[in-house]
Amino acid sequence: MATIKITGMSCQHCVMAVTKALTGIDGVSNVKVSLEKGEASFDEKKPVDMSVIRERIKKAGFDVA
Question: What pTM was computed for the model?
């Protein structure tokens, strides 16, 4: 399981937005976003470039720490 730190999340809507953004990436599954920890964890069914992960998070309106 991979984990990435995310800044800018402040509510459950933020959690849902990040979850949706990461779930939409081919190869990513089992996405869990923690508002309290400010991070997202996920499984990779196949290798996924972290730049793609960061880009999707930024597109959703958040920053990668």
Answer: 0.93
Q: 7 near 60, Cβ under 8 Å?
A: no
| Residue whose entry in the numeric block shows the structure tokens 């923690």 | 34
Q: 34-50, pLDDT tens digit by residue?
A: 999 999 999 999 999 99
Q: How far apart are CA 50 and CA 32, in angstroms?
A: 17
CB atoms within 10 A of CB 46: 7
Q: Are the beta carbons of 46 and 11 closer than 8 angstroms?
A: no
DSSP label at 37?
A: T
Domains of the chain: 2-64 (3.30.70.100)
Place of tokens 């953004």: 21
Two tokens at 43? 């499984």
